Amino acid sequence: MAFQIVDIYERLDMVAQDGDIEGLYELIAEYPNILEHFDNVSFCETPLHIAAEKGQTHFAMELMNLKPSLALKLNVSGFSPMHLALQNNHIRMVRGFLAMDSSLISIKGRGRITPLHYVAQLAVHVAVKSQQFMAFKVLLGWVRRVNREEILDWKDEDGNTVFHIAASMNQTEVMKLLLNTVNVKAKNLDGKTAMDIVETDKSPIFPKATRLLRSAKERLLFGPSMTLAGYLSREPSTIEGKNKLLGLNNLSKTKQGSRESTDFRNAILVVAVLIVTATYQAGLSPPGGYWEDDSPNDGHTAGQMTMSFNLALFFYILNGVAFFSSLYVIMVLIIGLPMWMVLYGSTAALGMANYASYRYTFPHLDGSFGNIALALVWFAYPVITGTLLLRYFMAFISNKRRRQGVDFPARYFSSVQEL
Questions:
Q1: Which of 88, 91, 372, 413 is deepest in the core (most CB within 10 A)?
Q2: What's the distance, CA 374 to chain centroid?
Q3: pTM for this one?
Q4: Which residues pair with 300 in a beta bridge?
């Protein structure tokens, strides 16, 4: 029985490849529930995927009419039938899919890319090739607003990005708009960058484009473009190590894994926020409270901690360790999220406010030991805060520039946070 079922699905794949509608109905007559199997599998290669890839439009429309849910399925590579039809330039099939269900244009596949993004990439290339500058500006504005700048680095069948096309057609205005957005060192299938294309053509109309590309080259802070193999052969960066720990890397991400890693990250974030809140509150309301009046004889003033200098120093160090370690965890988890720079600034403000509070309320101790201890404490606090903030910020920027130097779709190296 099992062998018979396997044979039936092999025959179904064959009729899908051939676009044999009569063969499809013969299989349905032989095994009426043959299409129900695909509803029970999360990711699978359905006959509609095969027909979409092979360009069997009539077969695909017939199959979608019989089983509309197949159009919503993603295969094991993360693509829907609509994605495959667009990737293989089967325009009639795309139109047929849209006529039957217009919502298919919004299905999120691998890398959260929808068919609409493929259409946008094609439209960008067409706008540049046809020298429709205003149309290109409109599309570029849309790409930036939906945070999908990687579309501009996608390549056509010749391996050319939109920047290659702009360079080959001497569209300097387009190139100016793209300089700070695209990977100017990306290579096409001939192994040429946009700079190479400009230098190949010695026509006098190209000097302006050449100057633009040379200027871009000088401004790039990362090294030369590298291949995927070159990127993967290097040691993982600090950010990549953190992403691996939390399961945030796209190269190994699954839908289930992504959900679990998000839950894991959220749980850690909640605990860290609770610790920061508790330690910050403890700093504002230390054990014993504060003196309410000045007492020159006892050596204290109003607003200072009632604890002795040694106990206050002990409390301050332990409370500070808990505060800073939790603050560091929060910064690690939020970097790359929307508005993370604002959150970073807020974190710095929180640290400095805590510093100001301790600076005013900490008890004084006469003598060289007290002065030295206080000097070390007041020096260490801003240094630790600055180190925590700058270290991960610089690591994030360095990792981002490192990935920009790879001549490969950047979304496969982005964390869930950055996507």
A1: 413
A2: 44
A3: 0.47
A4: 295
